[in-house]
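Write out the bound-state structure for EPZ.
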Amino acid sequence: MNTLLSASVSAAALDRTTDVGPEVLAIRGGRPLTGRVDVKGAKNLATKAMVAALLGETESVLRDVPDISDVHVVRSLLEVHGVGVDDDGDGVLRLDPRGAVSAHMEEIDTHAGASRIPILFCGPLLHLLGQAFIPDLGGCRIGDRPINFHLDALRKFGAVVEKLPSGIRLSAPGGLRGADIELPYPSVGATEQVLLTAVRARGTTELRNAAIEPEIMDLIAVLQKMGAIISYEPNRVIFIEGVDSLSGYDHRCIFDRNEAASWASAALATDGDIFVAGAKQQEMLTFLNVFRKVGGSFDIAEDGIRFRRGGALKPVTVETDVHPGFMTDWQQPLIVALTQAQGTSVVHETVYENRLGFTDALVQMGADIVVHPHGLDGPYRRVGRRELEQAAVVTGPTPLHGADIVVPDLRGGYSHVIAALTADGESIVRNIGIIRRGYAQFLDKLTALGADFDVIG
Ligand code: EPZ
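---
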């Protein structure tokens, strides 16, 4: 890209250091986690709502923004594009897109970090500037994470997509027009891509086989506040009528279901008792059913949910799926608890092709887990899903012992820490910085719950 950085690009965007923090913990297990954690806004909504601010002609305010590195990455990317981002404290961000400019490819690459969110900048930047450069994406290594659904949709809106060695360059010579799109799979990211592009395209967009996760519905609420016209029909159909302009929004993020479910599973695994402030029943119905079947007990309060064991843990068969099914992000922490259940559980992972690799470390700690890379046939298999499926067969209870482990990805990493807190003896857990991508104040929360650990690197 040959445009110069505008003078308005804040210095902070250029030298914002990537998240630096502790990387190695010495964890002594065997103590139940008990106490309260406060869960803020959802990582998988806040980052998208920040991108949506690019579409507005006035300032946006986003509340309950979690202090996590995925948010920091998106903030830096917005600032590199000249968007003013101010942190009012207590999770309130003010985003002013009125100074938005093109940015150097190198700067974008520098700030994209290990996030997948940059791909969602396409539509808003094309509307705003007529062009965009998106670096090759990062994100957790839980599969090859293609973006074909995204690029196919953008081409249908009229975008020209050019593959470069370090990413993709897009342009929209004739502007963007409404499209008729059917997703091959209810992809969360591709649905967000269509929403963020269609709201300002000329004409109407029909999106079929859309993702309908609560975070998607919250993004639709954000866009509606900005002036978008989006109707959500039965059977995963969404209609978007393009409008000529959008204003800023004032929005409080939906709570982070994935973090809430993670702490709930931690209570099961360590025989603890955790009150997750901010958790809401409505968005966690499927998780709560499984939690109860495993032997968990929960109390729904006005301001959160209390999770604890209700007795001996029982084995279950779970199949991950799109909403309203059991989220793929929930299976890793749950599997740690299943290692302590009395019997054999099966977890079918149908969303990602390599999201059970984290179980290697659990086996190293004494768990009895067999991963079937191509799924299971026979009595365990519940319902045929996509051709893509992995299965983990977990037999318990097995005592876990400390080990020296390296965190592989965000949710797997969280699970490794919980396993170490469940195990007898001391574990060394490395590369924990990756956990900061999705769990705000992670070490403070562990301390508040009585975890016994030291930062050693
Ligand atoms: C979002 O990822 C979340 N990340 C994931 O959470 C979550 O696990 C996932 O949705 C499913 O709920 C964010 O929102 C930042 P997808 P996304 O597009 O959008 C395939 C976490 O831990 N696919 O719904 O990338 C893809 O490979 C993270 O918080 C294509 O084939 O998920 C996968 O198999 C992990 N082509 C499946 O669809 C495409 O163009 C679902 O992916 C896009 C996706």
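---
DSSP finds 14 helices and 23 strands in the chain.
The longest strand covers residues 343-349.
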